[in-house]
Specification:
The protein contains 13 helices and 11 strands. The chain has 338 residues and is of the alpha/beta class. The structure holds iron/sulfur cluster (2 copies). The site of one iron/sulfur cluster has 14 residues, from α12 and α13.
Length: 338
Amino acid sequence: MKEKLYLEETAKSLYAGKSPEEILADILGEKYIKYRKRWHNAQQFKIRPLFPIHLDFELAYRCNLKCIMCPHGDPKFKHPYMGKKLDTEMIKKILKGGVQQGLSSVRFSVLNEPLLEKSLVDLIRYAKDIGIIDIFITTNGMLLSEQKSYELIHAGLTHLMVSLDAATPETYSIIRKGGNYKKVVKNIENFLKVRAETGSRLPLLRLSFTKMKPNVHEVEKFVKMWVDKVDYIAIAGYLNNLDDSEVNKRLRVSRTIKGKFNCWQPWARCTIFVNGDVFPCCMNYGRYTPIGNIYKERLIDIWQSDKVKFIQDINKAGKCFKHPTCLKCVSSRDKFGG
Ligand code: SF4
Ligand code: SF4
């Protein structure tokens, strides 16, 4: 088993054989290699792209689970966005315009279960057809039927990221409330079978495990169970998404923020939340301090605004404490990360 640190500072990825990036470079060739070069250059603050290289779209605000680490699972949490959906035609318009400006990668999930959305497969197909190179979804896997697997493969998805967080049904049931461990495991195995039958190497399958107190003892077992079956495994530290909850109160922001932290995210990616609000990274917190809204302004104008430049510059300089959202985010990494 080969073990490497891969891309995200918060997630350690493990894989048997080639890395996802190496596999995709083999399959997709020069255009993929070029896009990854731009991505790595943005991560190192060497280029300031004129348009995000990657976009996350929150297609709707709903989920079929109530996980303990998620606002969807917090009974005290108020959900002002419940029931809202992003306009599909607006998404397509942004994708089409974005491709001309260097948009190369897209994910159709934020704080939502994408397999609940009827528009998903059509959007993946559309993104692929207009030239988006890398197309992701993150799912809890409950609705990953054989039929859905087949549709995702044929639509052109490149990364299927399934969050499991456990190596036993007992631990799973503590964390992923409303889910069914055995069903998700079966769905993952069926997906691999369908993919093999189609002869496709894509989408690559990432299995995720977010370390928390109830599951941390199962990391090793989880890795052993899956590393030779899926394309890669991501073991991530917990980043607190429960804004204004008791969990956040325990963060002690002023104590935990120490030293420099250079966040590359606002240099490469941007999230469009379900109500059209925009923030230049993938953190859920960003929805509370939007820097614009796609129904009021063009995304390119939002991205090139002074607000984004400010967030980019403070993060390059390691002064994230100058923005309340970044401060909260970095503090949660110190407290729960690793
Ligand atoms: S599956 Fe994802 S979005 Fe749904 S409740 Fe769990 S963590 Fe939240
Ligand atoms: S909130 Fe700030 S520090 Fe956190 S990921 Fe986003 S841009 Fe980076």
